[in-house]
Design a protein that fits this description.
The protein is mainly beta. It has one domain: Maltoporin, Chain A. The protein is built from 6 helices and 40 strands. The chain has a 22-stranded antiparallel β-barrel. It has a 5-stranded mixed β-sheet with strand order 1-6-7-4-5.
């Protein structure tokens, strides 16, 4: 499981004392915040104006608008829905600027990944209603734990670069914030089913009671997804739920949410080499072993199994015409394991005492993760004619147990099966406060300031690295301006500073790992008219000790990173929307960039060699996307979607043997909705044909050096079709 890495804890007293102190601190903080927001809410005269979609306050502290000098893209529920037939959120975002997506199974279900401006998912900050979603230790985002979450997303915003201050992990490539479903005033229901290639199927049921007595709403969703995957045995069996209760008052919105999912996926994170790919693009080595008769077989339960449940409580209050407040509490419970068949494994590595002289055996192991993540976020927003101020922050704590056990061994052992052969533990606290303001200095000029202080404390004990007990204090200032040239043209400039701590895998890779720093400069131009809209920006991201991907993966498919000293990303992003006829529109975008390590020192040959400036791994120089839409009649919409990604290195030493070829892929999407006045309000039909020209392409790979390069092939032409009934 990509959630798992090994850090052994032997210091139980350290864990216990830290837990007690943190628990006491959290009680004090929670009590103080509750008192503060209660005082703000009830000590002033209530505004009698009705609440107008206070849902948006859930993300207002971490979102930006056109008035903010930050580069961003939005996607609405309607834009997500036309292609929401089972594929994960990263795949649905594939056509946004500077975005590259990939899938272990090859068809967009199961484990999927995203890169923005060449930065992988561990460097993309993700929040749900302002609550951090990135895994605290790996910094990764595992969409497989929340299948069909797109069906419960009202809107999302992708901020490229550092973006505005947010909660959770620092944004080093982008930040993604998602707002879940708004409350509905009237009762609704929805049944959605889709089917497609590789025995893929998705079944979704949604409901809302509407506002009962003008104040209360209950809404929910159940989803089940299955797929065999394009890659051999890369199957997925996924289930998820979403349930929320809402109270709406004149100036109050209270939401209680719970959502989560269970997943069982056959492992497909090994990749294949070029020789095998030429013979069989779908080959999967996971679970392969040789039985006692010399026959090649595959273990039928080489699977990843995980369950994750999220709980959120939000309280939004409109204190006056100028003040809004938001207070949230959250808790996430995650537990699961991945299972492997290991051939000829040394018994001593698994804590097994052999009977007789046999010291190695075939065995089946499970690696478990059992974690808790909880905390609070808060914000207060003041808006006047010329001033918009947000004060906010959060405090979160992660506690994780990692342990392994052997459930079967071919040869007898004096040890009991099921005993833990390692027991690891880690504790991480993450707190931040920020203040940001937008001030209309002149009629056409507004200035922006954003200050954030973040503290991170991480404790763990590892047989590889010894005791890890690091404390980080980060100060992240941001500033910029927006100038309205005229009604159609806007120019903006911003500077942002970001700092980021190493993740769990980084510590395992070496004791000298350093936190990384980033100075991000953005210069943009926005143009908008009735039929033409364009956004363009130049960015320069200057890193110190950037943790770049080496190209290698660990034994659970997680990327290995290494500090690179000085490096930078310099690029131009352009995206546009053009309506050139009543029925036709086009939305092209492209990114042209240079991504370099400065005076990169390599030890690949066994000695240190300065290679000068080299290309940063997984950072193509050119990315382009386009959506061409034809709507001949109101209920019908046909879109042609195109994506081009130039060649990219899988290493940082410009070794051409570890390189992904460029690829150009086209999809066809059609949506037709029939409005009804009987039992159903509407009947929707959606069809998606992916890779319509059946291109053999690879969107991800791994380079272990010495010519050991592995690839992750993606599916050829395949389809998904769905039927949605709304009532």
């Amino acid at each position: 499981m990509k959630h798992f890495n090994q850090l052994s804890i032997t210091n139980y007293e350290l864990r216990t004392s830290s837990t007690i102190v943190s628990f006491r601190f959290s009680k004090i903080l929670f009590s103080f915040l509750f008192f503060l927001f209660s005082f703000l809410s009830f000590s002033q005269v209530k505004d009698t104006t009705k609440v107008n979609q206070l849902d948006e306050v859930l993300v207002s502290a971490v979102r930006v608008t056109a008035k903010t000098p930050v580069t961003f893209s939005n996607m609405s529920k309607e834009e997500l829905a036309v292609r929401n037939l089972g594929q994960d959120i990263p795949v649905l975002m594939n056509y946004l600027p500077s975005v590259i997506t990939t899938s272990d199974a090859g068809n967009g279900l199961g484990y999927t990944g995203i890169r923005v401006r060449g930065s992988d998912a561990t460097r993309v900050n993700v929040t749900i209603n302002g609550i951090p979603y990135n895994d605290s230790e790996s910094h990764g985002t595992y969409w497989v734990n929340m299948p069909d979450f797109a069906s419960s997303v009202e809107s999302l915003q992708l901020q490229r670069g550092v973006g505005t201050s947010t909660n959770g992990a620092g944004a080093f490539g982008a930040s993604l914030n998602m707002l879940t479903d708004n409350y509905a005033k009237k009762s609704t229901g929805e049944i959605s089913n889709s089917f497609g290639s590789f025995n893929t199927q998705k079944h979704t049921v949604k409901f809302s009671t509407g506002l009962m007595n003008d104040h209360f709403e209950i809404a929910g969703r159940l989803s089940a997804l299955k797929s065999d995957g394009y890659i051999d045995r890369a199957s997925s069996d996924l289930k998820s739920y979403f349930l929320q209760g809402t109270y709406v008052g004149k100036t109050t919105l209270i939401k209680a949410l719970t959502f989560g999912g269970t997943e069982k996926t056959y492992q497909a994170w090994n990749g294949i080499n070029a020789v095998k790919m030429a013979e069989d693009r779908t080959y999967n080595s996971a679970g392969e072993f040789t039985d006692e008769f010399g026959k090649t077989r595959y273990y039928n339960n080489e699977t990843d199994n995980y369950k994750q449940d999220h709980y959120q409580l939000h309280w939004n209050e409109k204190v006056s015409e100028n003040w809004n407040t938001n207070l949230a509490f959250h808790y996430t419970k995650g537990k699961g394991y991945y299972e492997n068949y290991k051939e000829n494994a040394a018994m001593s590595d698994y804590g097994l005492q052999p009977v007789g002289v046999v010291a190695a055996t075939d065995l089946i192991r499970q690696k478990w993760l059992d974690n808790d993540f909880y905390g609070t976020t808060f914000s207060a927003n003041y808006k006047a004619d010329k001033l918009d101020v947000i004060l906010g922050g959060g405090w979160n704590k992660y506690e994780g147990d990692h342990f392994g056990k052997v459930i079967w061994a071919r040869y007898a052992s004096q040890s009991e099966l099921g005993d833990h052969y390692y027991d690891d533990f880690s504790i991480k606290t993450d707190g931040n406060v920020f203040a940001k303001a937008n001030y209309q200095l002149l009629e056409k000029l507004s200035v922006y300031g954003d200050l954030q202080y973040r503290n991170v404390h991480y404790k763990a004990n590892s047989w590889e690295t010894g005791l890890v007990n690091d404390n980080f204090n980060f100060f992240n200032p941001k500033a910029g301006f927006t100038f309205d040239v005229n009604k159609q043209n806007v120019i903006y400039f911003s500077y942002a500073r970001a700092n980021r701590e190493p993740n769990r895998t980084d510590y395992e890779g070496g004791s000298n790992v350093k936190p990384e720093k980033l100075n991000d400069y953005e210069l943009g131009w926005r143009f908008k008219s009735s039929k033409f809209q364009v956004n363009s920006n130049l960015y320069y991201m200057k890193y110190k000790d950037q943790l770049v991907l080496t190209g290698e993966l660990d034994d659970v498919g997680s990327p290995i990173r290494k500090n690179s000293g000085d490096s930078y990303r310099l690029g131009l992003e352009v995206d546009a929307t053009i309506k050139f006829a009543k029925q036709w529109s086009i939305s092209p975008n492209f990114t042209l960039s240079s991504n370099k390590n400065v005076d990169f020192v390599s030890d690949a040959s066994g000695s240190l060699v300065n290679l000068g400036n080299t290309n940063i791994a997984y950072s193509p120089d050119f990315i382009a996307g386009n959506i061409l839409t034809f709507a001949p009649i109101v209920p019908l919409r046909i879109s042609w979607l195109s994506k081009f990604v130039s060649e990219q290195y899988l290493n940082n030493i410009d070794d051409a043997s570890g390189k992904l070829k460029d690829y150009f892929v086209n999809d066809l999407n059609a949506a037709y909705e029939i409005k009804m006045n009987s039992v159903f309000k509407s009947i929707g039909i959606n069809v998606l044909v992916n890779n319509i020209f059946n291109v053999d392409y690879v969107s991800n790979g791994a380079d272990y050096g010495g010519g050991y390069v592995y690839y992750f092939p993606q599916a050829g032409v395949n389809f998904l079709a769905g039927l949605t009934l709304k009532f």
